[in-house]
Design brief:
Butyryl-CoA Dehydrogenase, subunit A, domain 3, Butyryl-Coa Dehydrogenase, subunit A, domain 1, alpha+beta, 395 residues, binds flavin-adenine dinucleotide, binds 3-thiaglutaryl-CoA, 3-stranded mixed beta sheet
Length: 395
């Protein structure tokens, strides 16, 4: 099977299976046909192309690693990573939409849900007919979710089937306003974190959109407001107890970001190479100057190292040998190099680098969110620091 034409200096695609390359090809076609033609308009207007959800569902992009019995594609983790890479080559908002739906909504239902919850929600979410969101962050608890103030109180503590009353506020929630179901994390009366499926329309639940973002403009970001929301016991995730339940979901999404950020970096690098060959200054292409070549050589080297890191993480994940600190290294490094690559690419484009006629400034703004969410660069540095020394330095 012919390899795809993309930045691949070390022929890393030779290490991919035919199935993995086929998934990459499908995702690349989707990005070129469905995302790139509309993304500048959505970014300018700060709107999310919701109509792409069922299209992604039909192609198997949502919850893609989960089993086929629930309507999912059952892909391996490398194919899933390539999918995230190609979506983010288009725009981080589309990778975000797919990774929240798959890693942060379908995964917790699959891993911690009852059989009834799985049968009810997974096929609907896989098809893109329903949209989900994940509410962990609060206004005063971002990097430190253990301190969350959201509370779940048993409605009638004398009955086992009595349901729950939820109170609290979540912030910065991707897809919150358009979601049919929110996976909400709140502490019970014993102080243990539980997960709940809060459905659109439940009394006391609202999800106003947050405005004024300069980054990830083609994504909906929302508050979740819970005021005495009655949630039945059958909407609690029975196998989720403690902070490790939401953190386990983050491992799924952080892994996807380690690949997605490479797609963003490659889009910026490829735009910079193309521009450097065609922009003439001082009677020759700017790519003919040593300073530009140094920038391009360093960008390519960082992307190539990031590709090797992502691929090995995928192989470890498929072998069920991956650890959270290894995922942190992938999220941390690949977001950092994507951020740097996007800045240098913008510089190479000169004044054109600030125009949305080119994709670079959009990616450069987006990476600020991606670098921050799913654990900031600092938090992943500290996770690695703890792994190395055995000493936690968060507090
Ligand atoms: P700590 O004591 O370290 O851990 C509590 C329990 O959790 C276990 N654990 C994990 N389990 C699975 N996967 C992981 N990645 C795990 N990390 C930790 C741990 O073993 C422990 O288990 P047990 O059995 O002992 O109870 O907890 P801590 O409170 O000290 O916090 C550590 C810290 C700072 C690393 C953690 O709080 C953290 O990762 N903070 C960052 C918060 C974050 O990433 N938030 C993301 C919100 S969601 C989001 O951003 C979505 S963006 C979506 C998009 O649009 O793409
Ligand atoms: P803070 O935790 O206040 O951190 C501020 C600064 O302090 C950062 O630089 C941080 O690295 C640093 N810092 C914090 N603690 C330490 C420490 N111990 N040592 C050194 N430095 C430290 N959350 C969800 O739950 N669901 C979502 O769907 C979701 N989507 C998002 C979408 C977007 C566009 C964005 C921007 C965020 C989203 N988030 C979501 C929230 C995201 O996870 C948080 O923004 C992130 O975890 C950081 O929290 P914070 O913004 O409160 O920053």
């Amino acid at each position: 099977m012919p390899q795809l034409n993309c930045t691949d200096f070390l022929n890393i695609s030779e290490l991919l299976s035919e199935e993995e390359i086929e998934v990459q090809r499908m995702a690349r076609d989707f990005t070129e046909k469905e995302i790139l033609p509309i993304i500048t308009k959505h970014t300018r207007e700060s709107t999310f192309p919701k109509e792409l959800f069922p299209k992604m569902g039909a192609l198997g992009f949502l919850g893609a690693t989960l089993p086929q019995e629930y309507g999912c594609a059952g892909l391996n983790n490398v194919a899933y990573g390539l999918l995230m890479q190609e979506l983010e080559r288009g725009d981080s908002s589309m990778r975000s939409a797919a990774s929240v739906q798959g890693g942060l909504v379908m995964y917790p239902i699959y891993a911690y849900g009852s059989e009834e919850q799985k049968k009810k929600w997974l096929p609907l979410l896989a098809s893109g007919k329903k949209i989900g969101c994940f509410g962990l962050t609060e206004p005063d608890f971002g990097s430190n979710p253990a301190g969350m103030l959201s509370r779940a109180k048993k409605k009638n503590s004398h009955s086992t089937n009595s349901g729950w009353i939820l109170n609290g506020t979540k912030m910065w929630i991707t897809n919150g306003t358009i979601a049919d179901v929110a996976v909400v994390w709140a502490k019970n009366e014993a102080g243990k974190i539980n997960g709940f499926l809060v459905e659109k329309g439940m009394k006391g639940f609202s999800a106003p959109e947050m405005k004024g973002k300069f980054s990830l403009r083609a994504s909906v970001t929302s508050e979740l407001v819970l005021e005495e929301v009655e949630v039945p016991e059958e909407n609690r995730l029975p196998k989720a107890e403690g902070l490790k339940a939401p953190l386990g979901c983050l491992s799924q999404a952080r892994y996807g970001i380690a690949w997605g950020s490479l797609g963003l970096a490659m889009a910026c690098y490829e735009a910079a190479v193309e521009y450097s060959k065609t922009r003439i200054q001082f009677d020759k292409p700017i790519g003919g100057f040593q300073l530009t070549q140094k920038k391009l050589a360093e960008m390519l080297t960082e992307i190539t190292k990031g590709q090797l890191l992502a691929l090995q993480l995928g192989r470890l994940k498929d072998a069920k040998k991956i650890t959270p600190p290894q995922i942190s290294m992938g999220k941390m490094n690949n977001c950092a190099i994507a951020r740097k690559v996007s800045h240098v690419a913008r510089e190479i484009l000169g004044a054109n680098g600030i125009l949305d006629d080119y994709p670079v400034i959009r990616h450069m703004m987006n990476i600020e969110s991606v670098y921050t969410y799913e654990g900031t660069h600092d938090i992943h540095t500290l996770i690695l620091g703890e792994e190395i020394t055995g000493i936690a330095a968060y507090k």
